[in-house]
Design the sequence.
């Protein structure tokens, strides 16, 4: 049995001296405890080294794919089959064994025992192969690993889109975290100086101002000209003297400053990360970056998973990438599907008006799909395609906004150049007739006005016909001008009449509305007066009822008082003064209550 072993330097053929040892793969390692035992079981037969790194890469790539390379086929045909025609060939890969058996008609075997044997041979390969060079083998392994890595990636090592995916995700997280920190700092320092956040709108300028001022009492003597404008600085100093904030301790200010320093550090790191993302996007996808920008391009790559996956999407998918939730909702409810997703934030779409956003997103997605495929699968990394497409889109957007949408195609332009249209200008100048100067009066010829004479009337002469045509052209021109003026004046009159009619209708409608409003107001006032009268009547009726209820009781009380007064007068009549007695008696007589 022969064993085929491949390495970074070439192919090697070994012969198994005792095949019975392969029946126990678990104990096979005992036969390779040292080089002496290994040489007893195996013997080196022949080898074939690679010519250069390209030859090694080609052969190794074919082995990985389970194919028979030209180098291996030539080696087996000339150096192995010609000498060892009856031997069985042990191969590690089952696909490669099938390819060798199919093309060279060589019996091949592969099993777990063969795999274990291959591993043991690699351990003692320097002792089994004569003239083995360890340094040469290490150099070949290093070069082959780099070449194989590039082949697997199928693009430059600089184009690692994983860095872009992680960078854009980290940038989004930094934005959220930085916003939370700044809001926390504003709320914290707002207890001491609440007016500051209303004056300074920029978050970073606010944080730097807090770091510079410290306590608000220091604002008057602090120079803030490097952070905020002069007029804003004046407002800060004026409001610091009359601020309604509370006092804080020095320890509080120390913690606030620590939070502000973290905010500034995060802001600086974000700027550095954004610059890194721009450079990485220009290296990985320059055409896509020029079309949609580095942030939108990075989000598209992150959403698709990789640049290669994004290149597999059609333009329609690139257009709505990121709006899947709205798309499925629209399909479920049978409404209009969204026109754009993440691509909406591109500069070419944001600068277009609302009516052109959908059209521009469709055009930009088509160009972006081409740019992505060039960036992902192109051999040369150039941004010429992106620059050309962006210039075309900007020109198209300008035409759309100005209304110059109609353009002559290349075919139409060629037809126009081959068959140009001819335009002739007919002169409308009236020529003076010289015959009008003649004083000769022609004789009147007698003519017959019978119907037969009219039918057989002779045709006029060519000169006379020319003069008549010139007169007709002049008269027709004057008539056309008059007709045009009449039509224009008629249109103006019709328009003025229409405007006057509309204004009269508006006046009539307004008068009708005013009359209706007056009638409603009068009716409302009448109803209010009627309600007021009903209320007064009800109130008077209640008073009368209450009086009628109290009247019998009052009558009894008056009668009792009258009798008491009568008894009193009768009892003290002889001793009372004359005036009092006379008045009481007169009162009793006038009242006359029974």
Sequence:
């Amino acid at each position: 049995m022969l064993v085929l072993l491949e390495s970074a330097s070439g192919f090697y053929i070994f012969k198994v001296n005792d095949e019975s040892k392969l029946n126990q793969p678990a104990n096979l390692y005992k036969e390779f405890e040292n080089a002496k035992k290994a040489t007893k079981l195996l013997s080196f037969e022949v080898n074939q080294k690679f010519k250069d790194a390209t030859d090694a890469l080609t052969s190794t790539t074919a082995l990985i794919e389970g194919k028979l390379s030209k180098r291996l086929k030539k080696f087996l045909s000339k150096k192995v089959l010609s000498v060892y025609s009856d031997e069985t060939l042990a191969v590690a890969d089952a696909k490669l064994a099938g390819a060798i058996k199919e093309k060279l008609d060589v019996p091949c075997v592969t099993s777990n025992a063969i795999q274990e044997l291959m591993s043991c041979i690699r351990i003692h390969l320097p002792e089994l192969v004569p003239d083995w060079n360890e340094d040469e083998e290490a150099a070949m392994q290093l070069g082959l690993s780099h070449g194989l890595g590039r082949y697997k990636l199928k693009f430059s090592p600089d184009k690692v889109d994983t860095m872009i995916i992680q960078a854009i995700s980290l940038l989004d997280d930094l934005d959220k975290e930085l916003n939370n920190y700044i809001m926390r700092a504003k709320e914290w320092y707002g207890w001491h100086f609440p007016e500051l956040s209303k004056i300074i709108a920029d978050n970073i300028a606010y944080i730097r101002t807090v770091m510079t001022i410290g306590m608000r009492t220091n604002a008057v003597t602090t120079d803030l000209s490097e952070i905020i404008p002069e007029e804003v600085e004046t407002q800060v100093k004026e409001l610091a003297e009359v601020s309604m904030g509370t006092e804080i301790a020095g320890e509080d200010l120390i913690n606030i400053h620590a939070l502000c320093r973290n905010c500034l550090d995060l802001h600086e790191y974000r700027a550095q990360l954004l610059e890194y993302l721009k450079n990485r996007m220009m290296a990985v996808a320059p055409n896509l970056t020029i079309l949609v920008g580095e942030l939108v391009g990075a989000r598209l790559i992150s959403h698709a998973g990789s640049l290669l996956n994004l290149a597999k999407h059609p333009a329609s998918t690139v257009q709505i990438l990121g709006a899947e939730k709205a798309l499925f909702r629209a399909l479920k409810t049978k409404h209009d599907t969204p026109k754009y997703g993440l691509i909406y934030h591109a500069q070419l779409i944001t600068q277009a008006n609302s009516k052109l956003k959908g059209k521009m997103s469709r055009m930009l997605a088509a160009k972006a799909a081409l740019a992505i495929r060039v960036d992902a699968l192109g051999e040369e990394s150039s941004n010429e395609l992106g620059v050309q497409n962006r210039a075309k889109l900007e020109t198209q957007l300008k035409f759309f906004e100005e209304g110059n949408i109609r353009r002559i195609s290349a075919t139409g332009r060629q037809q126009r150049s081959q068959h140009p249209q001819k335009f002739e200008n007919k002169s409308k100048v009236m020529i003076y007739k010289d015959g009008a100067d003649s004083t000769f009066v022609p004789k009147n010829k007698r003519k017959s006005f019978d119907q037969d004479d009219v039918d057989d009337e002779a045709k006029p002469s060519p000169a006379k016909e020319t003069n008549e045509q010139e007169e007709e052209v002049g008269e027709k021109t004057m008539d056309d001008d008059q007709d045009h003026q009449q039509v224009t004046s008629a249109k103006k009159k019709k328009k003025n009449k229409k405007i006057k009619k509309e204004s009269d209708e508006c006046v009539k409608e307004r008068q009708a509305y005013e009359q209706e409003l007056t009638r409603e107001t009068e009716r409302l006032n009448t109803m209010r007066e009627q309600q007021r009268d009903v209320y007064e009547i009800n109130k008077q009726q209640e008073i009368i009822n209450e009086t009628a209820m109290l009247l019998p009781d009052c009558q009894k009380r008056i009668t009792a008082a009258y009798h008491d007064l009568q008894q009193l007068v009768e009892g003290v009549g002889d001793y009372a003064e004359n005036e009092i007695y006379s008045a009481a008696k007169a009162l009793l007589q006038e009242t006359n209550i029974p």
Q: What stands out?
A: Confidence is low (pLDDT under 50) at residues 445-460. Residues 162-280 form a domain with the Helix Hairpins fold (CATH 1.10.287.4070). The two ends are 159 Å apart (CA to CA).
